[in-house]
């Protein structure tokens, strides 16, 4: 594998598939996705994905160091997160009578639950368009969603997804919460945002 020979990949999976499956299941549980753990076909797919992650990184692996699936755990975790995404529904302002919020993001059911009702959700997205770039808004929403889903390392997860360091993710989230809190205090039309935990000032 370290020499780039693809013929080595599937014998590797045959020999170490159980170890990879254990890593995949553990990471899925850390992401609060026992539903996926129960689907053998999904676990099998993610085992193959993990093997491809190891294949791509194998030239850098030190045989004297950690086991491959331990050494590349963060990369495997990021691949799982990319595959999972989030169950999502598009915000449809026509069906809820709200103004166009202008932010092309997918609204997760977790965000809907946290926002409390559709009016506050629309206000949150509208506020984000006023204070943040599209990327920063997505980083903020993804970071908060990962926290709500029980991710124990949300800054690491989101950093892998957006090519940012964990500290950058936390800085973006902190900055946006401060801006959203200021907007809620200064603009009466966004006053209800102060009730949202995602908008609390740091």
Describe the secondary structure blueprint for this structure.
Elements: H1 9-30, H2 34-37, H3 40-57, H4 68-71, H5 73-84, H6 93-96, H7 109-115, H8 118-131, H9 134-148, H10 154-162, H11 166-186
Helix pairs in contact: 1-3, 1-5, 3-5, 5-10, 8-11, 9-10, 9-11, 10-11
Quick recap:
This protein is mostly helical and 202 residues long. Helix content is 64%, strand content 0%. The protein is elongated, with a radius of gyration of 20 Å.
What would the principal axes of the Cα set say about the shape? Answer: elongated
Whole-number radius of gyration?
20 Å
Q: Largest beta sheet, briefly?
A: none
Mean pLDDT: 78
Q: How are helices and strands ordered from N to C?
A: HHHHHHHHHHH
Query: What kind of assembly state do the chains in view correspond to?
Result: single chain
């Amino acid at each position: 594998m370290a020499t780039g020979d693809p013929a080595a990949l599937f014998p590797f999976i045959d020999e170490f598939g159980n170890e990879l499956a254990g890593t995949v299941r553990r990471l899925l549980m850390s992401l609060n996705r026992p539903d996926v753990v129960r689907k053998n076909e999904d676990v099998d797919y993610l085992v193959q994905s993990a093997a491809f992650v190891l294949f791509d990184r194998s030239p850098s692996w030190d045989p004297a160091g950690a086991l491959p699936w331990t050494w590349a755990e963060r990369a495997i975790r990021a691949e799982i997160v990319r595959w999972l995404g989030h169950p999502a529904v598009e915000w449809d302002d026509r069906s809820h009578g709200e103004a166009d919020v202008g932010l092309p993001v997918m609204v997760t059911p977790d965000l809907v639950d946290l926002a409390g009702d559709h009016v506050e959700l629309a206000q949150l997205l509208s506020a984000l368009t006023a204070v943040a770039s599209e990327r920063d808004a997505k980083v903020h929403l993804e970071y908060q969603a990962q926290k709500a889903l029980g991710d124990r390392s949300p800054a690491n997860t989101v950093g892998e997804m957006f090519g940012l360091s964990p500290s950058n993710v936390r800085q973006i989230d902190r900055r946006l919460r401060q801006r959203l809190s200021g907007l809620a205090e200064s603009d009466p039309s966004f006053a209800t945002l102060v009730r949202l935990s995602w908008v609390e000032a740091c």
